[in-house]
Amino acid sequence: MVEFDEVRQLIGEMLQLGDRLEKLGPDAPLLGSIPEFDSMAVIALISALETQFDIQIADDEISADTFITLGQVYAFVCDKVGAGV
Known about the structure:
α1 crosses α2 (39-53). The protein has helices at 4-15, 39-53, 70-83. The chain is built from three helices and no strands.
C-alpha cells in the first residue's frame, strides 16, 4: 500500500520544496503552479516513481492530467501498484 505522504515526500525532495512541502495536500496544483515542476522534473519524477514503487510507466500512460495535482499523481501511483505493474 502506498501512502500519500510517501509520494508527497518524494516530490518535495525532488523539487527541493523545503517548508513549502507541508502546505501541499491532495488538491495542491503541480504542473503550471510550481516553477520547479517543469518538463525535466516530470521526467525525473517518472523515473523516481518507477524506482521507489517498483512500477513500470509506459509512454502512452503519461499525460499532463496525471501531473495536475499531487492527489492525481498519488492516485496514478496507487493504480499502478495495485495493478502490480
